[in-house]
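Hi again,

Forgot to attach this to my earlier email, sorry! This is the prediction with FE2/S2 (inorganic) cluster bound. I've pasted everything inline since the attachment limit keeps bouncing my files.
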Amino acid sequence: MQDILSQYQTVSESEVTTWFEVGAVADFPENSGACVKYKAKQIAVYNYTRTGKWYACQNMCPHKMENVLALGMIGDKDGIPKVACPMHKKNFSLEDGSNLGGEDLKIATYPVKIENGNVYIGFSD
Ligand code: FES
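Structure tokens for the complex follow:
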């Protein structure tokens, strides 16, 4: 299980070597998640219209290794955009993947860019 989780490492914008096109802006729901695949990874993508920003993170919740974060509710906690896992409601920051409940579990996040109406996620592999 740890092996599956270890494929998910946060990528900063300066580390991006591949901008992977995942579809058109119109393909993604507003203020909720969608799941896309890159190599063996499942990635959750969120169009957060409240701030006009997009976020991407691993779809796998590190709590019970369930691929469910794309189904989570998004919102904010003290101004930090977050997703709540639909299983047991652990909250993760969409900015840096940290667990807003203060626990050790965190998630990998990936940069997103919009160009010519298309959505791209940045990877370093
Ligand atoms: S599986 Fe996500 S909080 Fe438990």
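Residues 32 and 46 are 6 Å apart (CA to CA). The pocket of FE2/S2 (inorganic) cluster is lined by residues 61, 63-64, 66, 85, 87-88, 90 (CB under 6 Å).

That should be everything now.

G.
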